[in-house]
Amino acid sequence: MLLGLGLLYVGAVLVLNGLWLLGKIEDREIIVVNVVSGVVTLAISLFWAFNAQADAGSIKGAALTLLFTATYFWVAYNRITKVDGRGLGWFSLFVAITVAPVAIQSLQGADSSISLWMGWNWVGWGLLWFCYFLLLTMKQPILRFTGAFTVLIGIVTGWVPGVSLLQGWLQP
């Protein structure tokens, strides 16, 4: 159930951040969903890493989820302080490089439809973080593409599967 909870908020924040990039939401308004999603993913990560049954797999899941957490808090911070986002762009490159082998390993080791789906999620998330690097640090003119891609990735990798897991329509 924690995966469904986390994915629901990943979906929400990505869809709304995409709409914000497309100019549909004001800078200050986007702070709320980023902070809430950051708190949710932080709580899930701390539980996965430090509960009595924590193991290598749950700690790896926590470490990877904290990459999302840091991103959401950083987006909120940038909106509060009105900085240009270059630091977040460099962090996004770090994350994109970090999750590339995770995506490859996930796809190579996929033994079920859910594990295959997770592998493709990592591909999508890695590409999205790379888009943020290109947009924020390299100042490439891909704002509209990145906004639309963020909405799409939010729906496909977060919102729909999160709701499906929480409703019991999809089993982890």
From TrEMBL:
Pfam families: AmiS_UreI (PF02293). It comes from the Bacteria. The chain crosses the membrane at residues 6-23, 30-50, 56-75, 87-107, 119-136, 148-170. Its main location: membrane. InterPro entries: AmiSUreI_transpt, AmiSUreI_transpt_sf. It is found in: Cell membrane. GO terms for cellular component: plasma membrane. Belongs to the AmiS/UreI family. This is AmiS/UreI family transporter. It comes from Ancylobacter rudongensis.
